[in-house]
TrEMBL record:
The keyword Metal-binding does not apply. It comes from Ponticaulis profundi. Belongs to the 2-oxoacid dehydrogenase family. Residues 87-96 have a biased composition (Basic and acidic residues). Residues 261-274 have a biased composition (Low complexity). Residues 1-76, 107-182 form the Lipoyl-binding domain. The gene is odhB. The keyword Cell wall biogenesis/degradation does not apply. Keywords: Acyltransferase, Lipoyl, Transferase, Tricarboxylic acid cycle. It comes from the Bacteria. This is Dihydrolipoyllysine-residue succinyltransferase component of 2-oxoglutarate dehydrogenase complex. PROSITE patterns: BIOTINYL_LIPOYL, LIPOYL, PSBD.
Length: 507
């Protein structure tokens, strides 16, 4: 018998609320399979099974408040293997379906994996394999899009894809059965046809369509309600006894009418008809999230932009002189972005408000410098984060940016790659932008926009000369950053870039 307890939940977090049990007593579980979700006032934490077995007893019910180390459930060993024959007996026995007892091996079910903190569902984007195709272990079968990243689901075994249970475009939750694979080489001489969308696992129905009322409010729901000035009792709850979960709160925010934008045209109740030269394409989850977060930033922050320009002569000369030796020594190309990251870190150290965030009525100052670098991909804009930039060399920064950019373009970014940035840099200059006003990436308080370098006449020592100039734009949250601080920050960035030797020498 194995005890499942509340894990360490992060610095300063001492308790949590049991949000949702994904397994019931008597269910078989696999090692590392998520069995329960805990909600804190900061994050949602998924608790996996430490080993394969049967969930024999649930100690802490949904809605209960538990402390670190508290007993959640008990897991008995050896049950998972014993349940396998029963699963085989329930396999389809139609003439079109392969027999589970085929000599080539057993049928293995493919389910939606855990996709990261607070991600409960996704949209099945595209199948890379079709029924009847041979697959290798760890070969990608299907891609699932969430509101944060695209997740590739690999094959757990070598075999043949015998059945696709969920069609493209369907919404799936963690643990939903999406396909079946027969182990071995000749497992599926006659694959099962792809079913109609109705065959996908139904979404769980709400246990209560009414608001959560007097039901206990979890810390996560309380925080979301406080940050968005909403009454938590008005959030319809789907949890036990009508309790609102974190997912309920986020869904309520998306559906909540925007009083601040009452002048905006109301969305049509039914989609309008498309014309003969129009095409209607459903927005991806990533694009929907980008749209929602950018609009939230405009609605919640007192956003203002200040501008300056920078003479790129010295950086361009330094880069031209040393780029070949730099690449030979470090294995990465010397670009402009590493200089900008270093300049930003220097400015953030002098003006800490730009590196802070608002949490309710408090300001959280961050004494670390994790810089988000906006990357444009075919699916939309993502902002992977380069960690501890104050401790990295130019080569370390260039290498990290190169690796993250490749992962972004290949759709390989993880949740960890996208979370926790303290400041963002967006380079519109690569697309030819001369000037723009970038939008904040909440909860950050500042974002720096880079633009194209162009030859312009400037006055130096009483003479007009032609210099490579770039406009810089700092958008900031005026609730926390004063105008003087914003201008000072941008001036420090300009000074560091125009005198890179002083910046790198720390003088």
């Amino acid at each position: 018998m194995t005890d499942i307890t509340v894990p360490t939940l992060g610095e300063s977090v001492t308790e949590a609320t049991v949000g949702q049990w994904l397994k019931s007593a008597g269910d078989s579980v696999e090692k590392d399979e998520v069995i329960v979700e805990l909600e804190t006032d900061k994050v949602s934490v998924e608790v996996p099974a430490p080993e394969a077995g049967v969930l024999s007893e649930i100690i802490a019910e949904e809605g209960a408040t538990v402390e670190i180390g508290a007993l959640l459930a008990k897991l008995s060993e050896g049950g998972a293997e014993g349940s396998a024959p029963a699963a085989k007996e329930e396999a389809p026995k139609s003439d079109d379906a392969p027999a589970a007892s085929d000599a080539s091996g057993e049928t293995v079910e493919v389910t939606v994996p855990a996709m990261g903190e607070s991600v409960a569902e996704g949209t099945l984007s595209s199948w890379m394999k079709q029924p009847g195709d041979a697959v290798s272990k760890d070969e990608t079968l299907v891609e699932i899009e969430t509101d944060k990243v695209a997740v590739e689901v690999p094959s757990p075994i070598d075999g043949v894809l015998t059945e696709i249970v969920v069609s493209e475009g369907e919404t799936v939750e963690i643990g939903t059965l999406i396909a079946r694979i027969s182990a071995g080489d000749g497992a599926a001489a006659t694959p099962t046809p792809t079913p109609a969308p109705a065959a996908s696992a139904p979404a769980p129905t709400s246990s209560s369509s009414a608001p959560s009322g007097d039901a206990p409010v979890s810390p996560a729901v309380r925080r979301i309600a406080s940050e968005n000035n909403i009454d938590p009792s008005k959030i319809p709850g789907t949890g036990k006894d009508g309790r609102a979960t974190k997912g309920d709160a986020l869904a309520y925010l998306e559906k909540k009418p925007m009083e601040k934008t009452a002048s905006a045209p109301a969305p049509s109740a039914t989609p309008r008809a498309t014309g003969p030269r129009e095409e209607r394409v459903k927005m991806t989850r990533l694009r929907q999230t980008i749209a929602r977060r950018l609009k939230e930033a405009q609605d919640t922050a007192a956003m203002l932009t200040t501008f300056n320009d920078v003479d790129m002569t010295n950086i361009m000369s330094m880069r031209k002189e040393y780029k070949d030796n730099f690449e030979k020594r470090h294995g990465v190309k010397l670009g402009f972005m590493s200089f900008f990251v270093k300049a930003v870190v220097n400015a953030l150290q002098e003006v800490p408000a730009v590196n802070a965030e608002i949490d309710g009525t408090d300001i959280i100052y961050k004494n670390f410098y994790d810089i988000g670098v906006a990357v444009g991909t075919e699916k939309g804009l993502v902002v992977p984060v380069v960690r501890d930039c104050d401790a990295l060399s130019l080569a370390g920064i260039e290498g990290a940016i190169s690796d993250l950019g490749k992962k972004a373009r290949d759709g390989q970014l993880s949740m960890q790659d996208l979370q926790g940035g303290t400041f963002t840099i967006s380079n519109g200059g690569v697309y030819g932008s001369m000037m723009s006003t970038p939008i904040l990436n909440p909860p950050q308080s500042g974002v720096l926009g880079m633009h194209r370098i162009e030859q312009r006449p400037v006055a130096i020592n009483g003479e007009v000369v032609i210099r490579p100039m770039m406009y810089l734009a700092l958008s900031y949250d005026h609730r926390i950053v004063d105008g003087k601080e914003a201008v000072t920050f941008l001036v420090r960035v300009k000074e560091a870039l125009e005198n890179p030797e002083r910046m790198l020498l720390g003088v």
